[in-house]
Write a structure and sequence with these properties.
This is Aflatoxin B1 aldehyde reductase member 2 isoform 1. By secondary structure, the protein is of the alpha/beta class. The protein has 8 helices and 8 strands, in the order ββαβαβαβαβαβαβαα. Helix 4 links the parallel strand 5 and strand 6. It starts with a strand and ends in a 28-residue tail after the last helix.
Length: 314
């Protein structure tokens, strides 16, 4: 998956609708509008992508001027990190232009307790063959561990120079506010990045999370910007009764999680996005009386994209 990194600037308080006036897009010191950075997500490396295919993808990504890679302790049972570590990029070194991010999680018998947190990060460093990572995420909340314990352990690991920046992923806005407040009051390292799902069909983060991140000064990295492939136009409503394709939404242990994250026609009803009312409406539009349309939500000029909202690269 490709994650698009951006920090959302929200409307002023008097603006009660996204349709109302927004602040102008942020600009660099030169005065030119800034553009979002692109981060290569490596979740499929070691699963649907073998080592040679993974190496080719990273090489193509870097040749196009990008420089940030994203992985996690859990991706492909650790193979994603091991593949990246074997590419000879010198990750974590002072002269390495490639930035690497990884994550610790509370699933499958693990937790965000100090011992498990340290074990996961140190294992990741060994797999990645690097002394430190540029960005270390808490992959999701661990409601069985007091958050103070986790944050204190993160601060200790940062003091030991095992990571540069702290990030959060999949936390609620109120949890982000609590974490930032605790870190500030205790003098612990503050999170500076939040990674969450954001695309044209999944926009719940706009309501509370974006204002929260703006208030506390966190950058936002959007994952699933193409809704797991939905916005490419490759899914069709009529395929719902045919063989289910292996990929993001079918044929793996996390498929149900992804299916439940993308809304259908209303925020309160949920279904697989490939067969949702949104998809069905789109298919009807493409086959209207004006004939078959050649564009998709991804390619049609003027349709919603992550870059159509005010963003800034960090």
């Amino acid at each position: 998956r490709t994650a698009v990194r951006c920090a959302r600037r929200c409307p002023p308080p008097e603006a009660r609708s996204l349709a109302m006036a927004r602040p102008p897009p942020p600009r660099a010191a030169s005065g030119a509008p800034t553009r979002p950075a692109t981060v290569l997500g490596t979740m499929e490396m070691g699963r649907r992508m073998d080592a040679p295919a993974s190496a080719a993808a990273v090489r193509a990504f870097l040749e196009r001027g990008h420089s940030e890679l994203d992985t996690a302790f859990m991706y492909s049972d650790g193979q994603s990190e091991s593949i990246l570590g074997g590419l000879g990029l010198g990750l974590g070194g002072g002269d390495c232009r490639v930035k690497i991010a990884t994550k610790a999680n509370p699933w499958d018998g693990k937790s965000l307790k100090p011992d498990s947190l340290r074990s996961q990060l140190e294992t990741s460093l060994k797999r990645l063959q690097c002394p430190r990572v540029d960005l270390f995420y808490l992959h999701a909340p661990d409601h069985g561990t007091p958050v103070e314990e986790t944050l204190r352990a993160c601060h200790q690991l940062h003091q030991e120079d095992k990571f540069v920046e702290l990030g959060l992923s999949n936390y609620a806005a109120w949890e982000v506010a609590e974490i930032c407040t605790l870190c500030k009051s205790n003098g612990w390292i503050l999170p500076t990045v939040y990674q969450g799902m954001y695309n044209a069909t999944t926009r719940q983060v706009e309501t509370e999370l974006f204002p929260c991140l703006r208030h506390f000064g966190l950058r936002f990295y959007a994952y699933n910007p193409l809704a797991g492939g939905l916005l490419t136009g490759k899914y069709k409503y009529e395929d719902k009764d045919r063989q289910q394709p292996v990929g993001r939404f079918f044929g793996n242990s996390w498929a149900e999680t992804y299916r439940s994250r993308v809304p259908t026609g209303t925020q309160s009803s949920w279904a697989c996005p490939a067969w949702s009312s949104w998809s069905r409406t789109w298919q009807r539009l493409r086959k209207g009386p004006w004939g078959q349309l050649s564009w998709t939500p991804l390619t049609k000029p003027g349709t919603w994209l992550p870059t159509s909202v005010p963003i800034t690269s960090a």
